[in-house]
Design goal:
Blueprint (H helix, E strand, L loop, with lengths): L1 H14 L8 H8 L2 E7 L2 E7 L4 E4 L3 E3 L1 E3 L2 E4 L5 E8 L2 E6 L2 E9 L10
Antiparallel strand pairs: 1-2, 1-9, 2-3, 3-4, 5-6, 6-7, 7-8, 8-9
């Protein structure tokens, strides 16, 4: 009976562990040259991450950097966002809280560079 309780407690503790933020390399591999599409800040959001360090949204573009702090937007009020990645699913994190979720699409899937 005690062994069963220990096994159950161990299984539950594994499930309760928080997801680890993606590393710089994982972020680069997932985002650079690809598009994120999902929700952020309560609304729909899409952004293409060009290889030259420029992001393209539906209405704007700017500079991004991938650092040990996550995906950062210098010279803006956005700051840096960490992310957890599971396959093509991505969850943005800001100060330990979820800031948005969505999918990573291959390439400039929405033609954002052309806009």
């Amino acid at each position: 009976m005690t062994i069963m309780r220990i096994a159950t407690a161990a299984a539950l503790s594994v499930v309760a562990l928080p997801a680890l933020a993606a590393t710089q390399e994982e972020l680069r591999d997932a985002l650079v040259g690809n598009t994120f599409q999902g929700d952020m800040g309560g609304g729909g959001y899409s952004s293409y991450f060009a290889e030259d360090g420029t992001y393209y949204d539906t209405s704007t573009s700017g500079t991004y950097e991938i650092t040990e702090d996550g995906v950062c937007y210098p010279d803006t009020d956005f700051g840096c966002y960490q992310a957890t990645i599971d396959g093509t699913s991505l969850e943005w994190m800001k100060d330990g809280e979820s800031a948005g979720t969505g999918e990573i699409l291959e390439g400039d899937a929405l033609g954002l560079m052309a806009e």
